[in-house]
Amino acid sequence: MRQRLSFGLIATGAIALLLIAIASFYWLFPKGTPSLVGGKGTEPGAAIFVSKQAPAMVSLLVNSETLSGLFPDGQLSQFKTSLFAQSSINYQKDIQPWLGKEVTLAVTTPDIDRNPETGLQPGYLMVLATTEPEKSREFVDLFFSRRVLAGSQLVVEKYKGVKLIYDILPEKPESQTISQSIASATVGDSFVLFANHPKILREAINNVQAPDLNLITCSQYQQAIKQLPQGTLGLTFLNLPSVAQWQGLKLSQPIYNRQMIALAVSGKELLAETIIAAAANKTLPPLQLLSQPPEALKYIPSSAGVVIAGSNLSGLGDSALGQFWTQTTAISGSSQDMMGQWVKPLQDANKGWGINWREDIFNWVQGEYAIGLLPQGKHQTPNWIFVVEKSDAETGISRLNAIASKEGLSINTLNLDDTKLSAWTELTTVAKDQKSFNIEAKIKGLHTTLGDYEIFASSLETMDAVIKAGEDSLINNPNFQNSIAAFPTPNQGYVYIDWINSQDILEQELPLIKFLQILGNPFFQKLRSLTFSSYGSTTEFLKGGVNFQLQD
Description:
By secondary structure, the protein is an alpha+beta fold. Helices cover about 30% and strands about 30% of the residues.
């Protein structure tokens, strides 16, 4: 199942791999999934089993006690219990006594038999670190003995000195999908491996014994590892061309070929940092960076649910970040361009006016900008604010006036307290009685000059909130200040999402959000906000992150 993902830099990789991990575990434990728990570290040891050509690998490197510290009210324990409620596996008894500080899941190949006639059938490998080798071997024996009692037939074989155990499944005609099984191996005293086919285990062992095959020997992987934050809790690695192949898509000329995402915790914040590597013979254009938060944010009320701020909207599509988004949407199967997806609520708010935000507005913004979406209520289109430097605004206002005239809108001047506003309005007549009529004006948009900035808004109420923002503006909001403090400067700006104020907006535009809330209910209950930024750019790597703020 393909899902359209947005808010680019981090969301696509992190959310997609979360879903992969959860969905893929179901083949291993049909009536429940194992809890992803491990311990602190920087580099997963399981990478030695994973080919450098593998599409994806996700590792959690933190133990259950550390994770429980993030959810002190016991919600994590409740979550683990619910996962095993319908399973014969008892986490506390069967797994916890031996599970070490790493759980890794890898999609090792887009197609196990590499036969297009049987369809794409990904190979999955799960690697669990063990601190008690004897107990983990007992668990494997117990697990397969239960499968024998359920009617499975087993094979035990030696492969290059490693004992493999797996199901015997009936053969299928060549024209049908290949038979899949559950296969397991214990490698030394450190790791327990599970896979959905014995071929996957054999390849994992080959990767160890032929070191030039495994992920650890990939130079881009090693360079990215060195740039990750200390105290990493989890790690995701994506081979982007292989991910595209896995999704049945083709990238004509991929600019980026690998992406790594690391998770680290600091206090009440969870930081996901990503490193994106350029393909061979590709040079990334530099980012346009800001040495401080855009002052345009002082005109965004703190009640905004979603805020995007930075510099040079006109050049964003051709930047390294814009090119990454273009490739990412291709991999996810989406036809949306970056700015088209980010500002869809703005487009919805102006249906019937004939505005193309990217072509008619963003193309002339070269200085600072800020876009804010203010929720109106469930299932209602949010109000919007658009702030640009005054030096950019003259061209844009002329263009909007021309569009308004073409669409039959009137251009009117009005006062809001002591502030002079210009409004694009639709005039209609309403019969008062048989001999008299009233003229009503419906505002389609309005703008005014405040300081060095031109402010555009969707309604009088929104413009009034802008004018009265003052100390209650987003740039003065402690939560926002804390959320951006995690990022270095200079950077390219921010995408800020107040989770409480934005849920209605996000659920309308991203149906996947509701599904994620169900899967990660304890986390989303504690989430206060999330903020994206990109802040590192060389000719070979693009670097950025997302900061999740949790409530007390």
